[in-house]
Amino acid sequence: MNERAIVATDLSDASLFLVKHLSLLHTLNISSIILLQCPDYQEIASEVFPYIASIENEMLEKQHDILTSFGFKVEVLISPGNVSAQINRIAKERDINLVIVGSMGHSLVGGALLGGVASEVMLSTKHPLLIIRISLNEEREFTINHIEGESFLNHVLFCTDFTPPSMKVFDQFLVHMSNGEAKKVSLLHVIDEKHLSTYEKEGLDDYITVTKQRLVTMEQKVKSVGVKRVNSHIFLGSIQNQILNMLNNEDVTLSILGTTNASFIKELFSSSVSHYVARNSPVSVLLLPLS
Protein backbone atom coordinates (compact mmCIF):
# COMPACT_ATOMS: atom_id res chain seq x y z
CA MET A 1 0.00 0.00 0.00
CA ASN A 2 1.50 3.32 -1.09
CA GLU A 3 0.09 5.91 1.31
CA ARG A 4 0.96 9.60 1.08
CA ALA A 5 1.16 12.07 3.96
CA ILE A 6 1.64 15.80 4.31
CA VAL A 7 3.66 17.07 7.28
CA ALA A 8 3.44 20.73 8.28
CA THR A 9 6.76 22.03 9.57
CA ASP A 10 8.62 25.22 10.50
CA LEU A 11 11.94 26.30 12.03
CA SER A 12 11.15 25.33 15.62
CA ASP A 13 13.09 22.76 17.63
CA ALA A 14 9.81 20.93 18.23
CA SER A 15 9.24 20.53 14.49
CA LEU A 16 12.75 19.15 14.03
CA PHE A 17 12.15 16.70 16.87
CA LEU A 18 8.88 15.64 15.26
CA VAL A 19 10.57 14.97 11.93
CA LYS A 20 13.29 12.93 13.65
CA HIS A 21 10.61 10.55 14.95
CA LEU A 22 8.47 10.14 11.84
CA SER A 23 9.85 6.67 11.24
CA LEU A 24 6.77 5.86 13.34
CA LEU A 25 4.71 6.47 10.20
CA HIS A 26 5.85 3.19 8.68
CA THR A 27 3.43 1.37 10.98
CA LEU A 28 0.63 3.46 9.41
CA ASN A 29 1.61 2.37 5.89
CA ILE A 30 3.02 5.79 4.94
CA SER A 31 5.69 5.61 2.24
CA SER A 32 5.64 9.11 0.71
CA ILE A 33 5.76 12.48 2.51
CA ILE A 34 5.25 16.09 1.43
CA LEU A 35 7.19 18.32 3.81
CA LEU A 36 5.21 21.58 3.82
CA GLN A 37 6.28 25.00 5.03
CA CYS A 38 3.97 28.01 4.81
CA PRO A 39 5.65 31.41 5.35
CA ASP A 40 3.07 34.17 5.72
CA TYR A 41 2.93 37.06 3.27
CA GLN A 42 4.11 39.57 5.86
CA GLU A 43 7.23 37.50 6.39
CA ILE A 44 7.86 37.33 2.65
CA ALA A 45 7.52 41.12 2.33
CA SER A 46 10.07 41.71 5.08
CA GLU A 47 13.48 43.13 4.18
CA VAL A 48 15.15 40.31 6.08
CA PHE A 49 13.25 37.57 4.24
CA PRO A 50 16.26 36.57 2.06
CA TYR A 51 18.17 35.82 5.26
CA ILE A 52 15.20 33.98 6.79
CA ALA A 53 14.68 32.05 3.56
CA SER A 54 18.26 30.80 3.60
CA ILE A 55 17.76 29.48 7.15
CA GLU A 56 14.44 27.90 6.16
CA ASN A 57 15.98 26.19 3.15
CA GLU A 58 18.81 24.83 5.28
CA MET A 59 16.33 23.44 7.83
CA LEU A 60 14.10 21.95 5.14
CA GLU A 61 17.09 20.25 3.55
CA LYS A 62 18.04 18.80 6.93
CA GLN A 63 14.50 17.54 7.53
CA HIS A 64 14.36 16.15 3.99
CA ASP A 65 17.54 14.16 4.54
CA ILE A 66 16.25 12.77 7.84
CA LEU A 67 13.02 11.53 6.26
CA THR A 68 14.87 10.11 3.26
CA SER A 69 17.13 8.17 5.61
CA PHE A 70 13.98 6.53 7.03
CA GLY A 71 13.14 5.22 3.57
CA PHE A 72 10.40 7.70 2.68
CA LYS A 73 9.99 9.32 -0.71
CA VAL A 74 10.09 13.03 0.19
CA GLU A 75 8.99 16.20 -1.58
CA VAL A 76 9.71 19.61 -0.05
CA LEU A 77 7.07 22.24 -0.75
CA ILE A 78 7.04 25.92 0.25
CA SER A 79 3.57 27.40 -0.12
CA PRO A 80 3.04 30.93 1.26
CA GLY A 81 -0.23 31.73 3.00
CA ASN A 82 -2.53 30.49 5.73
CA VAL A 83 -1.26 27.15 7.01
CA SER A 84 -4.65 25.50 7.36
CA ALA A 85 -5.83 26.67 3.93
CA GLN A 86 -2.62 25.50 2.25
CA ILE A 87 -2.75 22.11 3.96
CA ASN A 88 -6.30 21.51 2.79
CA ARG A 89 -5.65 22.75 -0.76
CA ILE A 90 -2.55 20.64 -1.25
CA ALA A 91 -4.07 17.58 0.43
CA LYS A 92 -6.98 17.74 -2.02
CA GLU A 93 -4.83 18.42 -5.10
CA ARG A 94 -2.30 15.70 -4.29
CA ASP A 95 -4.79 13.08 -3.07
CA ILE A 96 -3.13 12.90 0.34
CA ASN A 97 -4.04 10.00 2.65
CA LEU A 98 -2.97 11.60 5.94
CA VAL A 99 -2.35 15.10 7.31
CA ILE A 100 0.15 15.27 10.18
CA VAL A 101 0.71 18.02 12.73
CA GLY A 102 2.52 18.06 16.04
CA SER A 103 0.90 19.22 19.26
CA MET A 104 2.21 20.46 22.59
CA GLY A 105 -0.31 21.08 25.33
CA HIS A 106 -3.28 22.91 23.90
CA SER A 107 -1.63 24.18 20.69
CA LEU A 108 0.16 22.79 17.71
CA VAL A 109 3.93 22.87 17.59
CA GLY A 110 5.95 25.70 16.19
CA GLY A 111 5.38 29.36 15.44
CA ALA A 112 3.38 28.74 12.27
CA LEU A 113 1.17 26.13 13.89
CA LEU A 114 0.00 27.76 17.09
CA GLY A 115 -3.37 28.60 18.52
CA GLY A 116 -6.32 28.86 16.17
CA VAL A 117 -4.64 26.94 13.36
CA ALA A 118 -5.15 23.73 15.34
CA SER A 119 -8.88 24.29 15.44
CA GLU A 120 -8.92 25.40 11.80
CA VAL A 121 -7.24 22.20 10.65
CA MET A 122 -9.50 19.99 12.78
CA LEU A 123 -12.63 21.76 11.59
CA SER A 124 -11.81 22.16 7.93
CA THR A 125 -9.83 19.13 6.78
CA LYS A 126 -11.70 16.33 5.05
CA HIS A 127 -8.65 14.06 5.24
CA PRO A 128 -7.50 11.81 8.08
CA LEU A 129 -5.61 13.96 10.58
CA LEU A 130 -2.89 12.64 12.89
CA ILE A 131 -2.09 14.92 15.82
CA ILE A 132 1.19 13.75 17.36
CA ARG A 133 1.39 14.67 21.04
CA ILE A 134 4.77 16.05 22.12
CA SER A 135 5.85 17.17 25.58
CA LEU A 136 8.93 18.21 27.55
CA ASN A 137 10.23 15.80 30.18
CA GLU A 138 11.86 16.76 33.47
CA GLU A 139 15.18 17.24 31.69
CA ARG A 140 13.45 19.71 29.31
CA GLU A 141 13.87 17.29 26.43
CA PHE A 142 11.17 16.66 23.86
CA THR A 143 9.39 13.32 23.94
CA ILE A 144 6.42 11.75 22.15
CA ASN A 145 3.91 10.86 24.83
CA HIS A 146 3.24 7.20 25.66
CA ILE A 147 5.33 5.91 22.76
CA GLU A 148 7.88 3.18 23.39
CA GLY A 149 9.72 1.67 20.45
CA GLU A 150 8.73 2.49 16.89
CA SER A 151 4.95 2.11 16.73
CA PHE A 152 1.78 4.10 17.35
CA LEU A 153 -0.13 0.82 17.33
CA ASN A 154 1.01 -0.89 20.52
CA HIS A 155 -2.34 -0.08 22.15
CA VAL A 156 -5.07 1.62 20.11
CA LEU A 157 -8.29 3.01 21.58
CA PHE A 158 -11.39 3.27 19.37
CA CYS A 159 -14.47 5.03 20.75
CA THR A 160 -17.94 4.30 19.41
CA ASP A 161 -21.56 5.29 20.00
CA PHE A 162 -22.97 2.70 17.53
CA THR A 163 -24.60 5.35 15.31
CA PRO A 164 -24.46 4.65 11.54
CA PRO A 165 -21.74 7.31 11.00
CA SER A 166 -19.70 5.86 13.86
CA MET A 167 -19.94 2.35 12.40
CA LYS A 168 -18.86 3.62 8.98
CA VAL A 169 -15.77 5.09 10.63
CA PHE A 170 -15.28 1.72 12.34
CA ASP A 171 -15.00 0.17 8.86
CA GLN A 172 -12.15 2.61 8.11
CA PHE A 173 -10.61 1.73 11.46
CA LEU A 174 -10.58 -1.96 10.51
CA VAL A 175 -8.63 -1.14 7.35
CA HIS A 176 -6.01 0.70 9.43
CA MET A 177 -5.78 -2.27 11.81
CA SER A 178 -5.39 -4.84 9.03
CA ASN A 179 -1.69 -4.24 8.34
CA GLY A 180 -0.53 -6.59 11.10
CA GLU A 181 1.12 -3.85 13.19
CA ALA A 182 -1.50 -3.36 15.91
CA LYS A 183 -0.61 -5.20 19.12
CA LYS A 184 -3.71 -4.40 21.18
CA VAL A 185 -7.06 -2.68 20.57
CA SER A 186 -9.51 -1.40 23.17
CA LEU A 187 -13.09 -0.50 22.22
CA LEU A 188 -14.90 2.06 24.36
CA HIS A 189 -18.55 3.07 24.70
CA VAL A 190 -19.60 5.72 27.21
CA ILE A 191 -23.20 6.02 28.37
CA ASP A 192 -23.62 9.78 28.65
CA GLU A 193 -24.46 10.95 32.15
CA LYS A 194 -27.01 13.34 30.61
CA HIS A 195 -29.11 10.33 29.60
CA LEU A 196 -28.83 8.26 32.77
CA SER A 197 -31.92 9.85 34.31
CA THR A 198 -34.03 8.64 31.37
CA TYR A 199 -33.40 4.99 32.25
CA GLU A 200 -35.21 2.97 34.85
CA LYS A 201 -32.94 0.46 36.61
CA GLU A 202 -34.17 -2.41 34.43
CA GLY A 203 -33.96 -0.28 31.29
CA LEU A 204 -30.34 0.62 31.97
CA ASP A 205 -29.45 -3.01 32.64
CA ASP A 206 -31.05 -4.01 29.34
CA TYR A 207 -29.16 -1.27 27.50
CA ILE A 208 -25.85 -2.38 29.00
CA THR A 209 -26.58 -5.99 27.99
CA VAL A 210 -27.25 -4.94 24.38
CA THR A 211 -24.15 -2.73 24.41
CA LYS A 212 -21.97 -5.63 25.55
CA GLN A 213 -23.33 -7.75 22.70
CA ARG A 214 -22.56 -5.00 20.18
CA LEU A 215 -19.02 -4.64 21.50
CA VAL A 216 -18.46 -8.40 21.33
CA THR A 217 -19.44 -8.30 17.65
CA MET A 218 -17.00 -5.42 17.08
CA GLU A 219 -14.27 -7.30 18.95
CA GLN A 220 -14.73 -10.27 16.61
CA LYS A 221 -14.39 -8.01 13.57
CA VAL A 222 -11.16 -6.50 14.92
CA LYS A 223 -9.75 -9.98 15.55
CA SER A 224 -10.76 -11.01 12.02
CA VAL A 225 -8.29 -8.47 10.55
CA GLY A 226 -5.40 -9.92 12.56
CA VAL A 227 -5.37 -8.14 15.93
CA LYS A 228 -4.91 -10.78 18.63
CA ARG A 229 -5.49 -8.75 21.80
CA VAL A 230 -8.88 -7.01 21.82
CA ASN A 231 -11.02 -5.90 24.75
CA SER A 232 -13.91 -3.54 25.35
CA HIS A 233 -15.10 -1.16 28.05
CA ILE A 234 -18.43 0.41 29.03
CA PHE A 235 -18.35 3.47 31.26
CA LEU A 236 -21.10 5.70 32.64
CA GLY A 237 -20.58 9.44 33.02
CA SER A 238 -19.13 12.37 31.11
CA ILE A 239 -18.08 11.20 27.64
CA GLN A 240 -14.97 13.35 27.35
CA ASN A 241 -13.86 12.72 30.92
CA GLN A 242 -14.23 8.95 30.61
CA ILE A 243 -12.26 8.94 27.34
CA LEU A 244 -9.48 11.01 28.90
CA ASN A 245 -9.45 8.84 32.04
CA MET A 246 -8.81 5.80 29.89
CA LEU A 247 -6.14 7.58 27.85
CA ASN A 248 -4.38 8.57 31.05
CA ASN A 249 -4.62 5.22 32.83
CA GLU A 250 -4.46 2.41 30.27
CA ASP A 251 -1.12 2.92 28.45
CA VAL A 252 -2.88 3.81 25.20
CA THR A 253 -0.48 4.83 22.41
CA LEU A 254 -3.04 6.13 19.88
CA SER A 255 -6.65 7.26 20.19
CA ILE A 256 -8.85 7.07 17.09
CA LEU A 257 -11.99 9.19 16.72
CA GLY A 258 -14.33 9.83 13.80
CA THR A 259 -15.34 13.05 12.08
CA THR A 260 -18.04 13.93 9.59
CA ASN A 261 -16.91 16.75 7.30
CA ALA A 262 -16.39 19.86 9.44
CA SER A 263 -18.21 18.58 12.51
CA PHE A 264 -17.66 15.56 14.66
CA ILE A 265 -20.11 12.69 14.77
CA LYS A 266 -23.22 13.55 16.76
CA GLU A 267 -23.26 12.67 20.46
CA LEU A 268 -19.88 10.99 20.99
CA PHE A 269 -18.15 13.16 18.42
CA SER A 270 -19.95 16.46 18.91
CA SER A 271 -17.55 19.37 18.44
CA SER A 272 -17.33 20.16 22.15
CA VAL A 273 -16.41 16.57 23.04
CA SER A 274 -14.05 15.99 20.12
CA HIS A 275 -12.18 19.25 20.49
CA TYR A 276 -11.88 18.74 24.22
CA VAL A 277 -10.43 15.26 23.76
CA ALA A 278 -8.14 16.26 20.88
CA ARG A 279 -6.77 19.24 22.80
CA ASN A 280 -6.39 17.47 26.14
CA SER A 281 -5.44 13.95 25.11
CA PRO A 282 -2.13 12.88 26.64
CA VAL A 283 -1.52 10.65 23.60
CA SER A 284 -1.53 11.10 19.85
CA VAL A 285 -4.93 11.24 18.15
CA LEU A 286 -6.00 10.05 14.69
CA LEU A 287 -9.19 11.67 13.39
CA LEU A 288 -10.92 9.71 10.64
CA PRO A 289 -13.45 11.60 8.50
CA LEU A 290 -16.65 9.99 7.36
CA SER A 291 -16.25 9.54 3.60
CATH architecture of the largest domain: 3-Layer(aba) Sandwich
Order of helices and strands: EHEHHEHEEHEEEHEHHEHEEHE
Task: State the low-pLDDT regions, or none.
Answer: 106-116, 261-271
How many strands, what sense, and barrel or not for the largest sheet? 13 strands, mixed
Descriptive overview:
The protein is an alpha/beta fold and 291 residues long. The protein folds into two domains: 142 residues, 3-Layer(aba) Sandwich (Rossmann fold), CATH 3.40.50.620; 134 residues, HUPs (Rossmann fold). Helices cover 40% and strands 26% of the residues. The chain has ten helices and 13 strands. Strands 1, 2, 3, 4, 5, 6, 7, 8, 9, 10, 11, 12 and 13 form a 13-stranded mixed sheet that branches. A hairpin with a 2-residue loop joins β11 and β12. The longest helix is centred in the C-terminal third of the chain and has 24 residues. The chain is elongated.
Keywords, separated by commas or semicolons:
291 residues; Rossmann fold; alpha/beta; single chain; elongated
SSE layout and pairing:
Blueprint (H helix, E strand, L loop, with lengths): L2 E6 L4 H8 L9 E8 L3 H5 L3 H21 L3 E6 L4 H11 L4 E7 L2 E2 L7 H9 L4 E8 L5 E3 L11 E4 L4 H14 L6 E9 H4 L4 H24 L4 E9 L1 H11 L4 E7 L2 E2 L6 H10 L3 E6 L2
Parallel strand pairs: 1-2, 1-4, 2-3, 4-6, 8-9, 8-11, 9-10, 11-13
Antiparallel strand pairs: 4-5, 6-7, 6-13, 11-12
